[in-house]
Amino acid sequence: MRSRILPLIFLVPFCVGISSLQAEPNILFIHSYDPSYQWTMDIDRGVREEISSRHPEVTIYTEFYDSKHFAPEDLEQPFLSYLLSKYVGIEFSAVLASDDNALRFVLSHRAELFPYRPDIPVLFCGINDVESYDLASHPNVAGVAERIDIRGTLDLMLRLHPDLSLVAVIVDDTITGRINKELFLQAIPPYENRLSFLIMENRTMDELLDDVRDLPEHSALLYLTFVRDREGTPFTPLQSLSLISDVSSRPVYTCWDFFMVGDKVVGGMVQRGALQGRELALLLSRLLEGEDPASLGVVERPLVAPLFRFEALQIFGIPLALLPQDAEVEGLPESVQYRFPGFFWSAILLGVILLSLLGLILFLFIRQRRTERLFRSLFQCLPDGALLYDTRGNILIHNRAAEQIFERSELDIKKHGLAGLLGLSRSEVAALLSRQREETLYTMQREITGKDGPKFVEIVSLPVAFHGTPAVLAIVRDMTDWRNTHQQLERSIREKEILLKEVHHRVKNNLQIMRSLIQLQKTKDLPIEAVRELSQTQSRLSALAALHELLHRADGSERIRVDIYLSTIASQIASSLLEGQIPIEWKISAAGMELPPDTVIPLGLILNELITNSIKYAAPAGAPLEIEILLSGEEGGYTLVYTDPGPNFDFERLLAEKNSLGFQLVRELARQLRGDIAYRHEDGKNVFTLTFRG
Where is the Signal transduction histidine kinase subgroup 2 dimerisation and phosphoacceptor domain positioned along the sequence (predicted)? Predict the structure, then answer.
């Protein structure tokens, strides 16, 4: 047992050493370009920031191939010798390569550089044409493709310049330039109906600047790359874009953040070096955590974002509001207006609203003051007394007319309030105010004490609001003279009514005396015809007497109950003519109507003639006489229907005969009523219909 444990004890130091080496891996990071290229440094920064947060134990060794300033074929062997001599004795866990020249160099010399591990994992970024590398023939190679968004940038150009018609494309003849040109040609077919394209390639810098200077209006530049001209002269992005900006009057757009230099470069949907670096660091992190490098693959999605330069936006008058919501603006001033535009414009809008509200309040205040002055002026000019008092009866405002009506000074009115002016107790004032608040328009009469005796006032009040609080506005009118005049008129009317009743009484008495005198004449030995004429005269006098009797008994009314009057005269006429010899069955209906005397008198005389005619000619032998009188209608038009059982006769002929006094009288009385009388005989009965106006 002891012999088995001893070998394990000797192996412990070696296991600890291996673990220590694995905990502190070394990474070689080769960049295609030198540190003067912002793109390169952004990638480097993105990798280091992401790895330091995930794997702080990692050591990254960085080298710059500098293939922009020198031809790669001239650098290749010296750079290989440099690396072999520099990193003797250091073993790397993986190699990182940014952009094409570094990746080609690593794939070409991987076995020479890393003899201890010929298939060492290689992770790349910034590669445009990944397919050209035939990664299937290179094991353990993965990375991040540099997919620029040319269409996204063209869309931004059209969004910010709706009148754009020409896009001039700047590109050089480097490997990267040729790749970018091919990508551009693949992207433009959807735009060929809207835009024209001019590709500025294979030019010297002077030729390029001349072409840029001559660009027409409604055009823009798309800068893909120009780091070496046709004569082989190298230019950094800052140099080339600065020269272009100096001569260009048109905005310049690009697809990479490291080309965001020069005052005419607006921006675009750009490839961010830092995003490439962070994505590359994520692949390295997965590798360090034990994932098979063959399974990492290639990240194909475009790592782009809308990026703009504030200076160029200002030069070309492009408002920030047109930019996408997720856009980043470089060089944005520190002012709130630009850093927090939503907050700034919201604050401006709020300020405008507050100022508007303040102005409105000031306007309303001034208008209210003017209205109040006008109200007070009108208040004072009212011929009637005016009071404005609160819900406790305290006088707030009054006019001079109120001082005259109540015979009190201004100080006295405000001191005593409503209770003192009207002579009310507190409870009475509370009850009055309650009624005034409940009713829209409340009217009351009140007797108050004046210097020369009692005064009678009428108060009309309505609830109002005064300075936002409930109040009552009351108009007070001195009704003393009116009441005195009214009382005098009432006394005069009562005296006239008494006098008129006395007149009616005396007229009725005189008519009855005349009727009695006629009755005395009937007792003498007179011819039958004379007796009949006297009886008819008696009946006519009875009709008039009955009317004056009703007027005498009426309690101040100038209208007569027609049903009572008709029943009275019918009874008196029958008594005068028949003296009980023939029974009469009356059917009288007037539905409680009341008519003025001027209408009732001719109506009564007409009925007198018709009843007299019925008694003379319609009374059946040995049977009661049935007479029906029906009055109907309303104000403006009435109908009287008179029916008896008499024989048929020529009514029109009787109306025309001058010796037929009764029917002549009926016709004239009907005309007096502005009416007409008609006759018909139906079902063995005479029917007289009188239509007249009230």
Answer: 502-576
- pLDDT tens for residues 160-206? 999 999 999 999 998 889 989 999 999 999 999 999 999 999 899 99
Is-above-0.90 flag for pTM?
no
Which of 1.20.58.1610, 2.60.120.260, 3.30.565.10, 3.40.50.2300 would CATH assign to domain 150-271+304-339?
Answer: 3.40.50.2300
- Judged by DSSP in three states, 271 sits in strand
pLDDT in tens, 117-155: 999 999 999 897 888 898 889 999 999 998 889 999 999
The kind and range of the H/E element at 358 are: helix 341-381
CA atoms of 437 and 680, how far apart (whole Å): 66
Topology (CATH) of 382-475: Beta-Lactamase (3.30.450)
CATH number for 485-692 (one of 3.30.565.10, 2.10.70.10, 3.40.630.40, 3.40.1190.20): it is 3.30.565.10
In the chain, what are the domain boundaries?
Answer: 150-271+304-339, 382-475, 485-692
410: Cβ contacts below 8 Å, ≥ 6 apart: 398, 403
Token code pair at residue 231: 């004569």
Cβ count within 10 A of residue 374: 10
How far is residue 297's CA from residue 102's CA, in Å, rounded to a whole number?
A: 19
Cβ-count burial of 163 within 10 angstroms (0-12 exposed, 13-18 middle, 19+ buried)? exposed
Q: Show Cβ contacts of residue 434 under 8 Å, excluding neighbours closer than 6 positions.
A: none
Kindly report, residue by residue over 380-421, the tens digit of the pLDDT.
777 888 888 888 888 888 888 887 888 788 888 888 788 777
Q: What is the pLDDT of residues 448-468, one digit of tens each?
A: 877 877 888 888 878 888 777
